[in-house]
Amino acid sequence: MTSEVVAKIDDFLTRAGVFTLSTVDGNEPKARPLGLHMVVDGSVVFGVGDFKDVYKQIVANPKVEITACIGGEWLRLHGRAVRIEDDSVSERALDMVPPLRSIYNDETGHKLAMFRIEDAKAEFIDMMTVKESYEL
């Protein structure tokens, strides 16, 4: 993954503010809005609670897709979610969004699980056409 493409994805997700993470639950698609993402070691990463259904879905089937829209343009990023085991990455994410510390802490026992997307494809799309496509 080139740093230019990662920067482009990061910028798009930041400007969108909220993006949709889609997972697979058995035979059913599941989607939910997220806002937390960051770049770590050249990869765009996202986090979900280790106690949530979304986490269980990713563990059972790591195929995920992130979509975000700004006006008539949108981003599709899909691939295989891989857990980042380095706790410092979760700590950085919690520093970015301090209110999350009320959910993810020693008292609750909940952990923020961070994932990067491998074997990824990113597409930047306008209303009718894929304008740019990258294998990552």
Compute the separation of the termini in Å.
5 Å
Question: What string, H for helix and E for strand, traces the elements in order?
Answer: HEEEEHEEHEE
Mean pLDDT: 95
| Fraction in beta strands | over 45%
> If helices are DSSP runs of H or I spanning 4 or more residues, what is the number of helices?
3
Fold and architecture overview:
With 136 residues, the protein is of the alpha+beta class. Helices cover 24% and strands 48% of the residues. Strands 1, 2, 3, 4, 5, 6, 7 and 8 form an 8-stranded antiparallel β-sheet that branches. Strand 3 and strand 4 (43-49) form a beta hairpin.
Descriptors:
136 residues, alpha+beta
Walk me through the topology.
Blueprint: H1 3-16, E1 19-25, E2 28-34, E3 37-40, E4 43-49, H2 53-60, E5 63-70, E6 73-84, H3 87-96, E7 112-125, E8 130-135
Antiparallel strand pairs: 1-2, 1-5, 3-4, 4-7, 5-6, 6-7, 7-8
Summarize this entry quickly.
With 136 residues, this protein is α+β, with helices and mostly antiparallel strands.
